[in-house]
Amino acid sequence: CLASSETFAGGEVLLATFDGEAGTSHSWKQMNDPVMGGKSTGTFSVAGGFGVFDGEVVNVPFLKAPGFIKAATNDARPLRRAFPDISTCKAIAIQAKASSAYKGYRFSIGSAHAPHGKFFAYGYKAHFKPTVGKLGTVVLPLDSFTDYWDDATGDPIKTCQDGKIYCPDARTLRDMRTMSVWAEGVAGKVHLEVKSVKAVGCTGEMLYA
After folding, report:
1. Are the C-beta atoms of residues 56 and 189 closer than 8 Å to each other?
2. pLDDT computed for residue 63 by the predictor
3. Which pLDDT tens digit goes with each residue over 32-47?
4. β partners of residue 184
5. Using an 8 Å Cβ cutoff, are 160 and 146 in contact?
6. Tens digits of per-residue pLDDT, 102-132?
7. Which among 209, 148, 194, 172 has a CA at the least distance from the CA of 87?
8. Alpha-carbon distance 77 to 191, whole Å?
């Protein structure tokens, strides 16, 4: 589900930055697994042009398995566009650096819920592996996202390749409304600095930043 070396020809649509630029600098809210009885801790802050995702994922006692921390944009307003249309794009590119090789990073867009999906599983999600110690770009093809994932682990149950019903839908691509960075399903300390999020491989008249 990750393709850090893959490239896509075409234009780009800038979705999120942390430099104060109007239109791409969003408000973010941290949410951790204590809402589900867990003990993971995390924070999200903006510093030096980066979104800084920091914390530790630990076991949820009643699950006896690692929980999650996540940071999500929360500035969508009714009847107003929150994000650009990425209907003509092929992938999401995350420019970031991690402090360690933590293996539970995930990224999600939108709030769709798969038919028969898990109770807490909303949005299209994909696993990603950021570069460690230096800034790099991870490219996540849109067909690596699925809205049918396990809300206890974050792992996919059915993928976009298993059926188009699980692929990002037209409504989400027109305006995803929200995006989230997760550390989930893997215990460990987390420190991720995100520089930007873009849609890439874009074509057509809808291309704009």
Report:
1. yes
2. 76
3. 987 667 899 999 999 9
4. 68
5. yes
6. 999 999 999 999 999 999 999 999 999 999 9
7. 172
8. 30
Separation CA 19–CA 5 (nearest Å): 26
Sole residue written with tokens 């949820």? 60
Distance CA(123)–CA(146), nearest Å, equals: 8
Select from 79, 190, 188, 96 the least CA-distant residue to 140.
96
**Cα 114–Cα 87–Cα 125 angle in degrees, nearest 5:** 35
- Rounded CA-CA distance 51/3 in Å is 22
Contacts of 136 (CB under 8 A, 6+ apart): 4, 95, 96, 97, 130
Report the alpha-carbon distance of residue 97 to residue 99 in Å, rounded: 7
Give Rg (Cα) of the chain.
Answer: 16
Q: Residue 109: how many CB atoms within 10 A of its CB?
A: 28
Cα–Cα distances in angstroms (integers) from residue 13 to residues 10, 23, 157, 187, 199, in the given order: 10, 12, 30, 33, 5
In the chain, which residue ranges form alpha helices assigned H by DSSP? 170-174
* Residue whose tokens read 């850090």: 4
Type of residue at 10: G
pTM assigned to the model: 0.92
